[in-house]
Amino acid sequence: MKKLLLLCCVGMCVTATEAQTGKPVKKSKNKQVDYTALTESKIESAQALRQVKIDSMIVAQQQADAARHFNDSVQYAGYLEQRRIANEAMERKADSLNREQGKQLSIQHSNTIAVETERKSLGKKAKLNPYQVQQVNFINQVYFTKAEQVKTDSLRNDTEKKAALAKLNDERVARLKTVLGKSKEKKLEKARKTTGNSKDTELQWVNEIDGVAKS
Questions:
Q1: Domain residue limits at 126
Q2: Splitting the chain (215 residues) into consecutive groups of 10 residues, what average pLDDT does each group show?
Q3: Does some domain include residue 68?
């Protein structure tokens, strides 16, 4: 009923308007929506948004790669620094060892020269020729080796070791007499006892045995 009354009122208003203006009132028509254009616009907006997201992801990945590359560079630089420090330490150690080895070689060389000088001096005092000096050195070396074996023999006590060393010394003297003759052997032994030959390790056991044999 209300709708009917409303339609009547509208009709009366339209009639009154036409009467006043003398023109019929045009009925408005709804504009037709272009759904195709609307759909394309939405698609373009979606594509633009998607491209923005893709660009953002690319930028984020580039930033992450740059940060990782920086971290890798820092770590590699640290690794290189550690290698440098380690290499320098090894070089210093090698230099120290080389210096120590050089020092020891120098000492050995000096001792060798000193021993040779002492041996030549003994030979000169005993009036030995170079060949006889070599023979004496060989005999002393042979009995030095035997004496070292006696000293390191754990099956012998000190008394037994002293007796064995004294016997070895007697054998050494006997061989020297055979090679040099009694006169030169006495001169050689006298010069040894006087000089001592402190640098000649092959004669130190003989110097010790002299005291043992005389006691």
A1: 113-214
A2: 53 55 50 63 80 86 82 79 83 77 77 81 88 92 93 92 92 94 90 77 82 45
A3: no
Read off φ and ψ for residue 67, nearest 5 degrees. -65, -45
Q: What is the pLDDT of residues 81-128, one digit of tens each?
A: 887 888 888 778 777 777 777 777 777 777 778 778 888 888 888 899
Q: How far is CA 3 from the centre of its chain?
A: 102
| Dist CA 122 CA 133 (whole Å) | 9
Is 190 part of a structural domain of the chain?
Answer: yes
Q: Does residue 118 fall inside a structural domain?
A: yes
Count the domains in the chain. Answer: 1
pTM of the model: 0.50
Question: Residue 208 is which amino acid?
Answer: E
The reply to whether 205 falls in a domain is yes
Cα–Cα dist 153/127, whole Å: 37
Tokens of 173: 């003297």
User: What whole-number distance in Å separates Cα of residue 71 and Cα of residue 163?
Assistant: 78
